[in-house]
Amino acid sequence: MNEETRLEDHLFTGYNPNARPVQNVSDVLVMKFGMALRQIVQVNEVDQVLVTSVWMRQYWTDTNLLWNASEFSGIDVLTTPTKKHWIPDIVLYNNADEKFGGMLGNPLSMIYSNGLVVYMYPAMFKTSCTLDIRFFPFDQQNCFMKFGSWAYSGVHLDLTLRELTPADTSNFVLNSEWVLVKMTATRHEVRYGCCPGFFPDITFEITIRRRPEFYIFNMIFPCAMITAMTFFQFYLPCDSGEKVSLGITILLSLIVFLLLLAETLPATEDIPLIGEYFAGTMVLVTISTIVTCIVLNIHHRGIHDNHKSLPHWARRFFLHGLAKVLCMHKDITSDNEHNAKIHPHDSDLHLNVDVEGRSLYRLKSLNSTMKTVMAMKNNSDEIMNKMLEQLMELNEDCKQKNKEAEGRSEWQQVAMVIDRLLLYIFVVATIMVNMVIFLCRPSYSGEIIG
After folding, report:
1. What is the mean pLDDT of the chain?
2. Across the strands, what pairs with 148?
């Protein structure tokens, strides 16, 4: 029999692992507690669960496990399974897993000859953590891990902080999505309505900050690019027939991004910052589609509204005032050109007449033609009178068609001016919406651990 086996027989013969290791029942067993944060494994926003990998550190004195090292070949420390001796029932109060322990592997403890028991083990904990997603993805979260005895009150087991770094982050492994800002440990004494006395606990506060680059590149940037396509909705000609279709396509694309965001975040009443951004862009695209329908109605007003002419005030406001402000005066018909087209001189009249949809006949210098007809009148008055009447009717008909074409052109010019105005308005509005998400992001100060 070697010395370690003999020492174990000496220590655990007659030892009761279920009894609290104190000399008197009234004695308080003091346990020192510490934890080293190894890694932030996952932050589940939907379930609001923090998954961490930690190293637990517990120290207490067992008066039933004392020996003289000189009697056992100088053995000063003995490593043994924890099932052979008493261990405190320390649990994670805000545990979110089915198992309370979270322990990995077979637990072992180190027992020193003076009765000091060192119980250190790795563990994986799932902690319930209330996440504040108001500034997602520029958020910073504070999560708590509360450890304490489930059965022993403070008069039987007193938890205290380990003197040397109770909240250790020296071996922390970096996370790709989160950075560790700080971790602190605090001791509390809480009285519960179920049991007499107070229950001490050690609470670790873990402050983490999200790295927003992933969401900026994969959600915000594509959304901004899709929203910028709204500008082309006002740039497309009204006759293209694709203005409304483009707006609806952009709106559907934004809805897809909003659904992806809804799968990432919990269903709470708090609207995240990125959600407000998506909502703002969707409102802009919706308004742009509505006003595009109005612009199309104006564009076709001269055709479908019984060839209604443009009101004088609208011509003055849109085609003269607003067009100059928007630097579009070169594309707009002036008053002189408008009057010339509506009331042309007969000698300069050039008419395009569509005959049965197959050919065009141009009448030039109508006055000279009419003079020739008048000269021929003496020869055949009856025939010439009929020809004259037909020419006069054709003249009036061509004037009317020219007037209607000019009216349609004015309505189309008004639609073009409104399109250009809306283009500028939506460029400014889109820039402001994109700036809001970055101006409203919180600013954090202080150093980070990793």
Report:
1. 83
2. 91, 201
The length of the chain, given as a count of residues: 450
Cα 283–chain centre separation: 15
How many other CB atoms sit within 10 Å of the CB of residue 441? 14
* Residue among 157, 150, 182 at smallest CA distance from 169: 182
CA dist., res. 353 & res. 20, Å (int)? 112
pLDDT one-digit tens code per residue, 205-234: 999 999 999 999 998 899 989 988 888 888
Amino acid (1-letter code) at residue 222: P
Can the peptide bond before residue 272 be classed as cis, meaning omega within 30 degrees of 0? no
Please tell me the predicted confidence (pLDDT) of residue 1.
65
**pLDDT beyond 90 at 408:** no
Q: What is the radius of gyration, based on Cα positions, of the chain? A: 43
- The pTM of the full predicted model, rounded to 2 decimals, is 0.75
